Structure prediction request, 452 residues.
Amino acid sequence: MVGPGTRHPRGHPHRALPLQRVPATMTEEMTTDAALAPRRRLPLVALLTAQLVSLAGNAVTVIAVPLYVLQTTGSPVATGVAGVFATVPIVVGGALGGVIVDRFGFRLSSIVADLASGLTVLAIPVLAATVGLPFWALLFLVFLSGLLDTPGDSARASLVPDLARLGRVPITRAAGAQSAIERSARLLGAAVAGGLVVLVGPLGALFIDAGTFLVSALIVAVLVPRAGRAGDGGSTAERHPESYLSGLTAGFRFLWENRLIRAVVLLVTATNAIDVAGMTVLKPVYATTVLGDPATLGAMIACFAGGALVGSVVFASVGHRLAGRALFVACFAVAGVLPYSAMALEIPFLALLAVMLVSGFAAGAINPMISTVMYGTIPATMRARVFGATSAGVAATMPLGAFAAGVAVEVVGLQATLVAAAVLYGCLTLTPLFDRSFHGLAAARMETSPHA
Prediction:
C-alpha cells in the first residue's frame, strides 16, 4: 500500500488532494528531533519482529481452532459457526477499537491487545483440560480473541511511520518490510500450526500459541521506546478531549472526506471481494474440475504466496525510487486480471503456476503502496481508527464476494465467471487513471519522507 514515486505527478501535487496534516503536533516535533538525533533502527526492527510473532500466532489460532471443533463435535456446521465467530470480530474490532487505540497510545494498546489475546487463547486448552469447555464458551473466547486482534494490528501499524522516522528509513521501505513480515508470518504460522497439531494436537498447539502473544508483548514493552510516540504522550483527556462517539465519527468522516484515502479504500474493498471469491470458490473449483486434482490448488496458492513475499521484499528495497500511479495500476492489473484470464483460457498447468508467481510478485507491492499512502495522509492522532475502519470495510466484503462467486458458477458456469472476474477487475484497475483523486499518490509518499 505505497505511493512509490519519487516525482510528483503531472500538475500541482496538491491540487487534486490537499494532504491533511496536524499542525504543531507532537508528531511534527518528533520528526524535527529525529532528523537531529542519532539514527535508531532497533525499535523499528523490534516492532516488525513483534508483528511477525503475533501474526504467526494468529495463523496458528485460525488453523487449530477449527480442527479442535471438528475433532470434538464431528460437525462441519459447528466448524463453520466457529469460523463465523472468528471473522465477525475483525469487522467489529476494526470499526470500534481504533478510537480506543488512538486514545491510549499505540505502544500501550499493542501490548495490552497481545496480552489479552494470549489469555483468551490460553483459556481454551486450560478450560478444556480442567472443568470442560462448552461450545458456547469456545465461541465466546474465539470471538473475544478476534475482537482484540484487529486493534492490536492497527496499533502496531500506526507505530511504523514514527519508528521509520526515528531510524531515518524511507516509509516505502518500512511499509514494504511490514508487508513482507505479514506474509511471512502467515506462511510460517500455517506451517507451524500443521506441525504442532500433528505433534501435540489442537489443544497443545493453542497452549503453545498463547506464548507467542506474550513474546510479542514483551518485545514491544522492552524494545519499542515509550517517549516520542504519537498518541503516547500526555493524558488521555489532553490527547483526545472528545467523547468516544465523537472520536469514532471523526475517524469515519476523515476516511470519507479525504478523496485519496476514500478512493483507495473503495478500490481495495471492491477488488478484495473478487480476490476472496477467487481464493474460496474459483480456484478450488478450477483445480477440481479443470485440472482434475484438488492438490493442484496448494501449488497455485504456494506460487502466488511465494511471489507476493518476494514482491514485498523487492518493493521494500526499491519502491521509494519508483513512480506512484503507474506502478499502482500495473500491479493491480498483473495481480488481478492476469490470473483469472489465464484460468479462463485454461493454459497448461506449469504456465499457470508461472502466472501465479508473477501475479503474486505484483500483489506483493500493493499493500505497502497503500500503507504509504495512508501514512502520508492520516494525522497521527487518528491513525488507528482510520486503519481499523479500513480493515473493517475491506473485511465486510469477503462473505459477499464468496457468495456471489458461488452463485455465478452455479448459474453461468466456471469459465464465464472467470471471464467476468477478469473484466471486472480490469475495469476497477483502470479507475486510478481517470479518477483525479489518485493524483496524490506520489505527493502522499513525499509527506512521509524520513526527513520531512
Remarks:
- Residues 171-223 form the longest helix (53 residues).
- The chain has one domain: 26-234+243-447.
- Residues 1-36, 233-238, 446-452 have pLDDT under 50 and may be disordered.
